[in-house]
Amino acid sequence: MAYTLTVNGSPHTVDTEPSTPLLWVLRDLLNLVGTKYGCGVAQCGACTVHLDGAPVRACVTPVSRVGSKAVTTIEGVAANPVGAKVQQAWKSLDVPQCGYCQAGQIMSATALLTATPKPTDSQIDEAMDGNLCRCATYPRIRKAIKSASGQAEA
Amino acid sequence: MNAPVLSRRLFLASSTAVGGGLLLSFDIEGEAQAAGPATLSAYLKVSPDGKATIASKIPEVGQGMRTALPMIIAEELDVAWEDVIVEQALADTKVYGRQVAGGSMATTLEWDGMRRVGAAGRWMLIQAAAAKLNVPAAELTTEPGRVVHVASGRKLAYGDLAQAAAAIAPPDPKTLALKDPKAFRIIGKSHVQTDTDAIVTGKPLFGIDVRLPGMVYATFVKAPTYAAKVASADLAAAKAVKGVRDAFVVDGGTALDGLLPGVAVVADSWWAARRGRNALDVAWADHPTSTQSTASLAAKAAEFAKTGAQRAARADGDVAAALKGAAKVVSAAYDYPFIAHAPLEPQNCTARVKDGKVEIWAPTQNPEPGRALVAKTLNVPPENVTIHLVRCGGGFGRRLINDYMVEAAFIASKVDAPVQLIWTREDDIQHDFYRPGGWHNFTAGLDAKGDLVAWRDHFVSFGEGETFVRSGGMNSTQFPAGAVPNYLHEVSVMPLGIPTGPLRAPGNNAFGFVIQSFTDEVALAAKTDPVEFRRKLLGEPRLIGPEGQNDSFHTGRMRGVLDLVAEKSGWGRKLPKGRGLGVACHFSHLGYVAVVMEVSVAKGQVKVEKAWVAADVGRQIINPTGADHQVQGSILDAIGSTLHQKITFENGAAVESNFGDFPLLRMSQAPPIEVHYLLSDNRPTGLGEPVLPPAPAALCNAIFAATGKRIRSLPVGDQLA
């Protein structure tokens, strides 16, 4: 089946099975490798992208379900001013260790701050608990979200 | 046009031998050097605009060596960090010496050598400037990026000197003067990790991101019971899946860390390969280890506990007599499970095999054994195997073993295209080289004053005779060895058909738990505060063990971090019911670390409220931002595994398969962590591992303080329910 997706503002047509996860469309067919495979079952959040601004796990999102929704990946998130701010905070605070999960973390954090510009600790926990970091950079992720939201860390 | 000049490649390799002498050799090759960068050594190129390209020799797994080692070179070279471009060195031990991300050894082994690499570059630039200015080199000094003639005020930029410097014979590194640490501009100050910008913008960096023209994707299915052969395989349905190019049986061998039997599916996309795999119908042959289970191993361990040890590994004094005469005897049995590494980037590797040459892009912590394995398996000379080191999405010791590398290379040898092999998460968790489980049967004796007079640990592990399985051994120098007059370390082993291997602070990640938990029990039996009891046990500052030996233990250094963490955590303060403080201290990987945790327990659920860490890893923290990362990451890693992780086996195969049943710590479970470094007058040593071992015991001792429940078996799981 042919699907035309809007990814980071540009249209892309791919020919694949309806059940192909968006993750593998992005990685293997569109060569957008910033979105990562971690578990394949929506347990780790490494594949988080936005559909019309809402965070979804691309590893369990069939391409047939994307429809006309705008797909945003880590490669395009800087076009969103909140996304750019989040990336900047991640850089300033040197958040990553290995870095593999961080694209997903940034996508989840950007969605959080877009919906909730000044999140509390428990709102951060709730929004970010689906994103695993095996290196456990959580203290800095929390700090970076606070910083990007203009809140000083307690 | 510039004339071709000779460039010398300075091969500096720091020896892994004790003493860490530098091997220096160089070859001279004619190389046209136009306006490009001039090569001063295998580590260093300087371009006309003054940018220094510095090679990082160690694989990067998130431990920060791709930043810390170039920082050391840049410091002694005397360039501004902004003018440094870091590139990853190829895997080539002939040029670079040891290239292993493991054992927390990079800082220890490379500190001096990398300083000399930088100093050699600076020396060559100074010689070039001396010739150009016609002044003695002794009159010259440097400021970042420039050689300075103080007397005349003349300055020459490194970029303008590089071509001439590259033509100068490199110095004997042993003769070089190094900077006074007080003059450090780069070392000791936080520098954002080299790849942070690329990571946060989603640039291709990792093994799984490698793309080659014409590349195809592969998946490889192996038997759930390790090394079982393919009995039969119906490949037709898999081959019929759209996008699948081929599916074939791999005979494989019997070595658990080599190429195992299985079925490969190769396709135009990884998802097509995955669908092809789902369509496979494979029957696995019976295998002798298919009767192994967690329960059968535990039953065997219980038998050893009852019948006594196979052998004594160390016997100081007379433990039996001391226990007989003791005022108080404490016994407890501890155990811990197998656990998986589960780096977030699943195992993967990209390989191209053409005309007898093998080119590999591998996220590996340890490339050379991989090269040897690939060469042997594909029957090509090792020099025909090129290995590019790509960033690893986590390592934790898993990628010290190169099974995925040989799989990728073998599959690529059967396919007329470059192949990227990607494991599923289930493959990763079920085909790990696990941290082996183990059992410790402790008995301690206290005299009437409450001093420890006898310590016995009967360690039950895996192996045959006096040989342990990989990462299943235990050194007989674990404290309180040498500090208690009667010390007996006994060992029993049983055979194992499950792959095991090093996981962050191998061995010590378990020994820290059992020894420091049991020490707490003994302290309480002695009616002594746990910090005070440890102080008494450490006694006078002294080295236990020979000078210069890696497992020799300095009681004074441990006392230092213990006192510091007690002070910072407010040890001894009163806490409300349901809360507790726990302490532990452990020495490993040359680092001395003490940890205090504060926990609350409610409705059977543990919450770590805060952790305090004091670490002594010598006189210099190279990159504080990276160091803090390792410390905090180690603590959180330990909290996650201690509370929740285990791999169980049934029918010789792992039961857990993904993050649903093998959970990693999540954001809401991560407490704040206060980090303190105790700078001591010792050489700088690594920080990726030594912080982890004391953490599980600090946590479990805090649980005891909060609840009165002693955790003697990991994970904590629902033991408090």
Automatic annotation (TrEMBL), chain A:
<protein>
    <submittedName>
        <fullName>(2Fe-2S)-binding protein</fullName>
    </submittedName>
</protein>
<dbReference type="InterPro" id="IPR051452">
    <property type="entry name" value="Diverse_Oxidoreductases"/>
</dbReference>
<keyword id="KW-0408">Iron</keyword>
<dbReference type="GO" id="GO:0051537">
    <property type="term" value="F:2 iron, 2 sulfur cluster binding"/>
</dbReference>
<keyword id="KW-0560">Oxidoreductase</keyword>
<dbReference type="Pfam" id="PF00111">
    <property type="entry name" value="Fer2"/>
</dbReference>
<keyword id="KW-0001">2Fe-2S</keyword>
<dbReference type="Pfam" id="PF01799">
    <property type="entry name" value="Fer2_2"/>
</dbReference>
<dbReference type="InterPro" id="IPR036884">
    <property type="entry name" value="2Fe-2S-bd_dom_sf"/>
</dbReference>
<dbReference type="GO" id="GO:0016491">
    <property type="term" value="F:oxidoreductase activity"/>
</dbReference>
<keyword id="KW-0479">Metal-binding</keyword>
<keyword id="KW-0411">Iron-sulfur</keyword>
<dbReference type="InterPro" id="IPR036010">
    <property type="entry name" value="2Fe-2S_ferredoxin-like_sf"/>
</dbReference>
<dbReference type="GO" id="GO:0046872">
    <property type="term" value="F:metal ion binding"/>
</dbReference>
<dbReference type="InterPro" id="IPR006058">
    <property type="entry name" value="2Fe2S_fd_BS"/>
</dbReference>
<dbReference type="InterPro" id="IPR001041">
    <property type="entry name" value="2Fe-2S_ferredoxin-type"/>
</dbReference>
<dbReference type="InterPro" id="IPR002888">
    <property type="entry name" value="2Fe-2S-bd"/>
</dbReference>
<feature type="domain" description="2Fe-2S ferredoxin-type">
    <location>
        <begin position="1"/>
        <end position="77"/>
    </location>
</feature>
<dbReference type="InterPro" id="IPR012675">
    <property type="entry name" value="Beta-grasp_dom_sf"/>
</dbReference>
From TrEMBL, chain B:
<dbReference type="InterPro" id="IPR037165">
    <property type="entry name" value="AldOxase/xan_DH_Mopterin-bd_sf"/>
</dbReference>
<protein>
    <submittedName>
        <fullName>Xanthine dehydrogenase family protein molybdopterin-binding subunit</fullName>
    </submittedName>
</protein>
<dbReference type="InterPro" id="IPR008274">
    <property type="entry name" value="AldOxase/xan_DH_MoCoBD1"/>
</dbReference>
<dbReference type="InterPro" id="IPR006311">
    <property type="entry name" value="TAT_signal"/>
</dbReference>
<dbReference type="Pfam" id="PF20256">
    <property type="entry name" value="MoCoBD_2"/>
</dbReference>
<dbReference type="InterPro" id="IPR046867">
    <property type="entry name" value="AldOxase/xan_DH_MoCoBD2"/>
</dbReference>
<feature type="domain" description="Aldehyde oxidase/xanthine dehydrogenase a/b hammerhead">
    <location>
        <begin position="201"/>
        <end position="288"/>
    </location>
</feature>
<dbReference type="GO" id="GO:0016491">
    <property type="term" value="F:oxidoreductase activity"/>
</dbReference>
<dbReference type="InterPro" id="IPR000674">
    <property type="entry name" value="Ald_Oxase/Xan_DH_a/b"/>
</dbReference>
<dbReference type="Pfam" id="PF02738">
    <property type="entry name" value="MoCoBD_1"/>
</dbReference>
<dbReference type="InterPro" id="IPR012368">
    <property type="entry name" value="OxRdtase_Mopterin-bd_su_IorB"/>
</dbReference>
<dbReference type="InterPro" id="IPR052516">
    <property type="entry name" value="N-heterocyclic_Hydroxylase"/>
</dbReference>
